Amino acid sequence: MNRLDPIGVIDSGVGGLTVLKWLQEKMPHERFIFIGDTARTPYGNRSREEIQGFVGEMTAWLNRRNIKQLVVACNTITVLGTDVIKNGYDFSVIGMKKGAHMVEGVTRNKKVGFLATDFTVASGAHKKEIQEMDPEIQVFGQGCPKFVPLIEGEQFGSPELAAAIKEYTDKLKEYDVDTVMLSCTHYPFVEKEIREAFGPGVTILDPAERTVQAAMEDLKQRRLNRETGLGRAEVCFTADLERGKRLAARMLDMNQCDFRLIHL
Ligand code: DGL
């Protein structure tokens, strides 16, 4: 393993592009290989066994490309646990941050909400981490099964998306939360709309930047960070390459990316 090896990035679909954007910005010398499993998205309403199987295929593919680190740009996959994802490979695994250290000092009334897939909410991982840090914080998870199909389907500005946003944000508003985490990497595609639905009294947090910081620290510690050369991303989808490109154009600098359709 050496500094010139690429960094793998995975998601069930286009959501991970919201993390890849930060990775490219903060680590401009690195080469990234992103896989969005657009053929089988969404993962958030599947069984643990099924998700584990898909992840195993992605990590085996990336291992053949000699990645030095895997950034799991998906909360649903992250809650499977690092050991399960790592599966004995040599690369390090950086999962999505669950937000404990982000909400600290932000919430005033100690009522924190998070929007995520049903799988992520059911895992209880976010609530556990936040309450281990501060048991006084009440944590409310809201599953949002309609969001990923609408985002993958490019239904921006549609009445269906507006209705889904209202439905999920209204539920969290009932608990009087003052801080909300976007705990699914697809949701920053509609962050502006979610922010507007909550209004100015609620702080919206995206764990992507903190996750990228953790990835940078890991590489520095292992002396595997690249400090020279021009970075680039190879953006791979398992279906619908053209749709993937259109969604990527909303997030990434297209001049720094090459796109590919792959089969796992
Ligand atoms: N983007 C994903 C996440 O962060 C998964 C969405 C899905 O496939 O349901 O949870």
UniProtKB/TrEMBL annotation:
What is the uppermost EC class here? Answer: isomerase
Tell me its EC number(s), please: 5.1.1.3
Catalytic activity, per the record?
L-glutamate = D-glutamate
For substrate, which residues are the binding ones?
11-12, 43-44, 75-76, 185-186
Does the record's keyword annotation contain Secreted? no
The molecular function terms in GO held by this entry are: glutamate racemase activity
Active site at 74, 184
> Could you give a single Gene Ontology term from the biological process aspect?
peptidoglycan biosynthetic process
Per the record, the pathway is:
Cell wall biogenesis; peptidoglycan biosynthesis
Which keywords does this Swiss-Prot/TrEMBL entry list? Answer: Cell shape, Cell wall biogenesis/degradation, Isomerase, Peptidoglycan synthesis
Please name the InterPro entries in this protein's record. Answer: Asp/Glu/hydantoin_racemase, Asp/Glu_race, Glu_race
Tagged with keyword Isomerase: yes
- Function of the molecule: Provides the (R)-glutamate required for cell wall biosynthesis.
Protein family per UniProt: Belongs to the aspartate/glutamate racemases family.
> Mind telling me which HAMAP family this protein's record contains?
Glu_racemase
- Descriptive protein name: Glutamate racemase
Question: Which species does the entry assign this protein to?
Answer: Acidaminococcus fermentans (strain ATCC 25085 / DSM 20731 / CCUG 9996 / CIP 106432 / VR4)
